[in-house]
Amino acid sequence: MNQTVKIMTPGPTQVRENVRMARSFVTTNPDLDLTFYEEYKTICDRLSALLHTDNVSYILSGEGILGLEAACASLTEPGDRVLVLDNGIFGKGFADFVKLYGGEPVLYTVSDKKAIDVDALKQYLQENHDFKYATVVHCDTPTGVLNPIEQICPLLKQYGILTVVDAVASMFGVEIDVDAGQVDILCGGSQKALSAPPGLTMLTVSSDAIQAMEERKIPIASFYANILTFKNYYKDKWFPYTMPISDIYGLGAALDNVLADQNIYVRHAQIAEAVRTAVVEAGLKLYLDNDYCSTVTVIEVPKDVNSAQFLQHMTDEYGIMIAGCFDYLAGKVFRLGHMGEGANVDDVVAMLDAMDQTFADLGYLLKCSMKDVFERAIKQV
Ligand SMILES: *Cc1c(COP(=O)(O)O)cnc(C)c1O
After folding, report:
1. What are 211-252's pLDDT values in tens digits?
2. Residue 302, preceding bond cis, omega within 30 degrees?
3. How many Å apart are CA 305 and CA 283, to the nearest integer?
């Protein structure tokens, strides 16, 4: 692989040395050595604390998508109606998991240019509230929109609707208060703002969610995606499968980094705002109208610029990787990651400088240098 490319993608993100080192510690047998159950629980408890919740946390072996599927697999019984809040690609994607497990997804589809409007949702729910649970994405990464889960989830809860929140792209880049938001299942991934390598998904699970799983009449149609198999791991000293101990040591070190970083959420917000200022002043267009997440900035690819060529040139010539997109946004937007380890002024300056130069090399004229505007804007905060 190319060791010199700096990744400024909206996940996976750069991994700090102490996280890489933790992954090389000597390991024990994580099934049989009881000390590992203590280590695993300590890391899970720290996760819950950082997410401001008394709910239990679990770390599952599998990338972020496993968390989303596990939540749907564990809650959905055949015939269940599930409200799928959709203002983006990941939002809509939940419908597939619901269907796979025999549920009936009911899509609530609104503009992908801004957050879900809580008042409009409130209106909708007055007439339509016969749902077992609802799914919502905190930051839908293809557009970078941030949905107000702290308002949406309590609203759903008023109707007894459980909530599954995909916070893979926001967790530890935007502060999340799970208990204040009454989120039943919150899903995260190791490779986004937490800045550990891909491979793990983290879940916080409420007692209401556990109860719903236990009261099912039809058993959960999965083993690997069955959250209940983790319920008694500590008491019974038994995991449903051998835990990826090195990955979990790395995750523990990454959580230590988050804990030690007093300014983490403010810095993400300031950097994101300065990036948006730079993009707009340079004459480029932000994809969203409002409600930007601090972890990623999504901009429209200007007419006359070829997305694939731009990305390749920027990586080859300047050693910095940003992301394009997929689905209906393929070739249409660039996604600039400034999450986790990438959320620092030096790396963002380098990214914008590389973009300035790539636009110039491809003959596209910006109104001004994004790097210069960013540096000025970030100094003023
Ligand atoms: C990254 C991400 C996931 C995990 O999906 P991958 O495509 O496998 O990386 C899930 N949800 C959101 C919102 C994400 O950004």
Report:
1. 999 999 999 999 999 999 999 999 999 999 999 999 999 999
2. no
3. 14
* Residue type present at position 265: Y
Ligand 1 binding pocket includes 282 (Cβ within 6 Å): no
Residue 163 CB-density burial (10 A; 0-12 exposed, 13-18 middle, 19+ buried): buried
CA-to-CA distance for 101 and 196, rounded, in angstroms? 30
Statement: residue 2 has pLDDT above 80: no
Q: Tell me: the pLDDT tens digits for 260-292? A: 999 999 999 999 999 999 999 999 999 999 999
The Cα–Cα gap between 216 and 75 comes to: 8
- The sign of the dihedral angle between the CA atoms of 347, 351, 356, 357 is positive
From the CA of 166, how far away is ligand 1's center (Å)? 9
- CA quadruple 112, 339, 322, 96: dihedral sign: negative
Is there a common fold for 17-260 and 263-380? no
> Token match 């993009």: residue?
279
> Residues 213, 203: contact at Cβ < 8 Å?
no
Question: Using a 6 Å cutoff on CB, does residue 189 contact ligand 1?
Answer: yes
Q: Is the dihedral of CA 241, 247, 253, 254 positive or negative?
A: negative
pLDDT for residue 259: 97
Q: What angle do CA 309, 285, 138 make, to 5 degrees?
A: 95
Cα-based angle 121, 126, 129 (whole degrees, multiple of 5): 85
Domain range 17-260, CATH class: alpha beta
- Any ligand 1 atom below 6 A from CB of 90: yes
What residues are paired with 61 via a beta bridge?
200
Cα(299)–Cα(308) distance, integer angstroms: 15
Contact 89, 117 (CB under 8 A): no
pLDDT one-digit tens code per residue, 67-97: 999 999 999 999 999 999 999 999 999 999 9
pTM for the structure as a whole: 0.98
Report domain extents, the chain.
Answer: 17-260, 263-380
Mean pLDDT of 198-221: 98
Q: Is any ligand 1 atom within 6 A of the Cβ of residue 31?
A: no
CATH of domain 263-380: 3.90.1150.10
